[in-house]
TrEMBL record:
<feature type="region of interest" description="Disordered">
    <location>
        <begin position="74"/>
        <end position="105"/>
    </location>
</feature>
<keyword id="KW-0812">Transmembrane</keyword>
<protein>
    <recommendedName>
        <fullName>Secreted protein</fullName>
    </recommendedName>
</protein>
<keyword id="KW-0472">Membrane</keyword>
<feature type="compositionally biased region" description="Low complexity">
    <location>
        <begin position="15"/>
        <end position="27"/>
    </location>
</feature>
<feature type="region of interest" description="Disordered">
    <location>
        <begin position="1"/>
        <end position="43"/>
    </location>
</feature>
<feature type="transmembrane region" description="Helical">
    <location>
        <begin position="47"/>
        <end position="65"/>
    </location>
</feature>
<keyword id="KW-1133">Transmembrane helix</keyword>
Length: 339
């Protein structure tokens, strides 16, 4: 260990001395002032008391500051009061929304790896179209599968599967084995390249939560025939119901989008909670399939489900609105153009 210098610290001219060094000088000054005044001078006594009190406060404050040190701020992203040990996956703790989930201004799902986490599919090529058993892990920076996730909207992980022409949309909820392997059956009904998005919040051993959306391609062999993107429209027909949305997404500013389910010209009043809310909205950008998962306001607004979205860039997007009526989950699909 290097020897510490015993020479006094250099001081910039005009700079105030530390409280510990100033105290003796101030005390000498007080004594000199007291000697200069006649005994029993009330003004001198008052000044002495005031200056002495000030010196004492400075010395005590300086000493306490050294002993206590600066206050520590909680670790960014950590759940308040989280234990040092990793919590039970079924408990999950408070869910921390990713930036992409808060207002829809950020795009996720473009990479298989982000934030120290990697989505690793067991198989990415399938010999024929049809139902497939999808298996994958989410590996941490150490290369080992992560097994602790926060519960978000009643599930630890949401898997979105869609073909690259944005047909065949599915919102799935895999189950996790003790070794961290996720499994779910998906219908890869047609040949071509499909995109799978894992939307989750991982929790590390320190209790820090990291919310991410990772994406990977799945290839189904066969004659691939892309389907053109449907035209821009504000309403969609689903099982005899009509879903209408109001609002216009713009770039760089959060705007409301209101989705209303109607039947026979009347607003359906029987919307049911689905995964902890009255609806879910997934938005995919046409050119690169950038993924945005936007969550709604907790209460219905005039019988509809209200979301807030800020578009990340101009272009066409495909919106998938999941809702539940009569115990059945339906998906209304829309094409929207942002200018």
């Amino acid at each position: 260990m290097p020897e510490q210098s015993t020479q006094p610290e250099a001081r910039v001219p005009g700079q105030a001395a530390p409280a510990a060094e100033t105290a003796p000088e101030q005390e000498s000054l007080v004594r000199a002032q007291q000697r200069a005044r006649p005994a029993g001078d009330p003004a001198g006594n008052r000044i002495g008391v005031l200056v002495g009190g000030l010196i004492l406060a400075l010395v005590v404050g300086f000493t306490l500051g050294k002993l206590l040190g600066p206050a520590e701020s909680p670790t960014a992203g950590a759940t308040t009061g989280a234990p040092a040990a990793a919590p039970d996956p079924s408990a999950g703790g408070a869910h921390v929304h990713s930036p992409l989930a808060s207002a829809g201004s950020e795009v996720g799902g473009l990479s298989v790896s982000s934030g120290g986490y990697t989505m690793v599919p067991a198989a990415a090529v399938f010999a024929a179209p049809g139902p497939q058993d999808l298996k994958f892990t989410v590996n941490g920076a150490d290369g080992k599968p992560v097994t602790t996730f926060a519960i978000m909207h009643e599930k630890p992980l949401h898997l979105i599967v869609v073909r690259r022409d944005m047909t065949g949309y599915q919102h799935l909820h895999p189950t996790m084995a003790p070794d961290g392997t996720w499994s779910v059956r998906a219908d890869l009904a047609t040949p071509g390249v499909w995109r799978a998005y894992a939307d989750f919040t991982a929790i590390n051993a320190a209790g820090t939560q990291t919310a991410l959306a990772l994406g990977t391609d799945l290839t189904v062999a066969g004659d691939h025939r892309p389907v053109p993107l449907p035209a821009v429209a504000r309403q969609a027909a689903v099982d005899g119901q009509t879903v209408v949305f109001e609002g216009t997404p713009v770039i760089g500013a959060s705007q409301p989008l209101l989705f209303t389910v109607k039947q026979g010209g009347q607003t359906v009043t029987g919307l049911e909670p689905y995964l902890g809310s009255f609806g879910h909205l997934v938005v995919l950008r046409e050119l690169d399939l950038g993924y945005v998962h936007v969550h709604p306001e907790p209460a219905l607004v005039n019988g509809g489900v209200k979301f807030w979205m800020s578009a990340p860039s101009p272009g066409r997007y495909r919106m998938f609105f999941d809702y539940s009526v009569g115990g059945k989950v339906r998906t209304a699909q829309f094409t929207v153009e942002v200018k």
